[in-house]
Amino acid sequence: MVVDNSSAGERAWASGIGIFAGTMLSTLGVFQVLEGLSAVSQDSIYQTRLDYTLDTNLATWGWIHVVVGALAVVIGVCILLGQRWALVAGICVALVSALSSFAFMPYYPFWALAIIAFDIMVIWAMTVLMASRARTPARRH
After folding, report:
1. What is the pLDDT along the chain (141 residues), one digit of tens a residue?
2. Which of 21, 43, 114, 123 has the greatest number of C-beta atoms within 10 Å?
3. Is the separation of the CB atoms in 115 and 61 below 8 Å?
4. Separation in Å, CA 37 to CA 29, 60, 91, 129
5. Which secondary structure element, helix H or strand E, spans residue 139, and what is its range?
6. In angstroms, rounded to a whole number, what is the distance separating the alpha carbons of residues 66 and 1?
7. Is the Cβ–Cβ distance between 125 and 17 less than 8 Å?
8. What single string gives the DSSP state of each residue in 74-128?
9. Contact 90, 75 (CB under 8 A)
10. CA–CA separation, 56 vs 61, rounded Å?
């Protein structure tokens, strides 16, 4: 028999943070997919600056965002379903999302900064949830 020493309040916080992390990662993924589709379609919303170190074709960045966004949606849903592996995968995807948004900054700087800020919040939420789950042993039925 495994003894659970965590309080009901701690479990509620961990559960809430998990729901926040999964929901935010899925939402960010949808935004990334939409941003990527807009870039792939060569939408006129994006500004192009030719003097950027990571200068690449806008369509290439669009496909990168579509793939990262799709992964974020799937992993965010898996976090909401309680899959433990999804926490580590979610941290990795949020990190890649933040890096790709940083590289995408010359095309839409304010949006890229907003995505990076939300990625950081998701990484924080998932690390807090992982720490909470590490302190609480798995229950046996």
Report:
1. 444 556 777 777 778 888 888 999 999 999 989 988 887 887 555 555 555 555 567 778 788 889 999 999 999 999 999 898 999 999 999 999 899 888 878 777 888 899 999 999 999 888 888 887 777 665 554
2. 21
3. no
4. 12, 11, 23, 32
5. none
6. 46
7. yes
8. HHHHHHHTT-THHHHHHHHHHHHHHHHHHHTTTTSHHHHHHHHHHHHHHHHHHHH
9. yes
10. 7
- Three-state SS letters, 7-40: CHHHHHHHHHHHHHHHHHHHHHHHHHHHHHHHHH
pTM over 0.85: no
The two tokens of residue 46 are 């994006």
The SS3 call for residue 141 is coil
